[in-house]
Amino acid sequence: EAQALEAAFEARIAAGEFIEAKDWMPEHYRRTLVRQISQHAHSEIVGMLPEGHWISRAPSLKRKAILLAKVQDEGGHGLYLYAAAETLGVSRDELLEALHAGRAKYSSIFNYPTLTWADVGVIGWLVDGAAIMNQVPLCRCSYGPYARAMIRVCKEESFHQRQGFESLLTMMQQGTAAQRAMVQDAVDRWWWPSLMMFGPPDAASTHSAQSMRWGIKRESNDALRQRFVDACVEQARVLGVGLPDPDLRWNEARGAHDFGAIDWDEFWAVVNGHGPCNRERLATRVSAWERGAWVREAALAHERKRAARRAA
Ligand code: FAQ
Fold first, then answer.
1. Rounded to an integer, what distance in angstroms lies between the CA atom of residue 260 and that of residue 247?
2. pLDDT digits 0-9 by tens, 146-175
3. Phi and psi for 29 in degrees, rounded to 5?
4. How many other β-carbons are positioned within 10 Å of the β-carbon of residue 219?
């Protein structure tokens, strides 16, 4: 019978049908989704921190309002994604426990510091740009609740990317020489970590083959990274910034840009907890969780009172 269920599941995947929360699914498919969706949720929540640092330092009311809205969106994306993971039979408490204990992964990119205001613009341009490139194919993910969450998330990410690009364009076209230098410095620091967001090269990607077969991932890490590089070259030209890669050039035969070697030792060091801000990010999350305990207790006490009143 197990074999028949598995065969029916594979047939639905092959036919391009969505798998829904209550449908039968192989245990490995469920675990893969919990892993990816929870890592994604953690990335959104931890991803609020680097930019959050600049909310009280934004240079104008307009920029502050935009940044506040963006960081709130990220909180919303995290909650959506935790809810999508919960449909697979894990609890949000378990997932957060794993994050706070340092057992769960989140995107490497959020372990780098935001040193200047230009970093906020560059995060929008490059980090949200990379996030969209990776997430648009996830709107066609075989798991329905994740795919549907991605549709809304991608719409919001596209506003995030544009606000970043526009902020950089303003600094590059109307700013001072010092502001232009600040933008270039931020691009130099974020470029390579942004390329690492797509994950290890296909040959070293443990989960890709199975996730592609199951329609969880629709495009490979390297294919998305290449598309991102190709898109950024033109955008960098419009902005008037350089990309810090002497090997970056158009390859006519491939119809794509060649680019330099990524420092995978740096990537794995950051993924394994040894990036510039890993400890600080985790400590901030744990402290926010602890400081929020009274809110959770009050909400539960309120709910108990309502339930008692309903029962009376
Ligand atoms: N950082 O076999 P693969 C955002 C891990 S965007 C850390 O290739 P997979 C929006 C991977 O988990 C960022 N770890 O894995 C925003 C695995 O470890 P495991 C979040 C990484 O899953 C913008 C191991 O390496 N987006 O938050 C990274 O098939 C601005 C082997 O790798 C998503 O999560 C990395 N960069 O492919 C918010 C998108 N790359 O689990 C605020 C959904 C790989 O065996 C501000 N996720 N690893 O211990 C995905 O598309 C996939 O999970 C990949 C990795 C493509 C990230």
1. 5
2. 999 999 999 999 999 999 999 999 999 999
3. -65, -45
4. 18
